[in-house]
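At this stage, I put together a protein sequence along with its fold in token form, as given directly below:
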Amino acid sequence: MSRVCELTGKKAMVGNNVSHAMNKTKRTFGANLIKKRFFIPEEDKWVTLKVSTSALKTINKIGISAMLKEAKSKGFLKK
């Protein structure tokens, strides 16, 4: 499974390592992802999602149901 947030679509970015001599080599900045279980009260079931920590903060603020609805409307969620 790829390292992509299932709710926001965040994934790895590409950048440069820059040495003291200003030599640049390519590198990737991985997304800060965690695997977390959420309880969906409307469906009365548990769902395991791989989410970014910023998405987790948003879930704590607006709730998992609103976040799932938003992710479905943006096309990040497959269901």
User: Anything to note?
Assistant: Residues 13-74 form a domain with the Ribosomal Protein L24e; Chain: T; fold (CATH 2.30.170.40). The longest strand covers residues 33-40. Residues 33 and 52 are 4 Å apart (CA to CA). The radius of gyration is 16 Å.
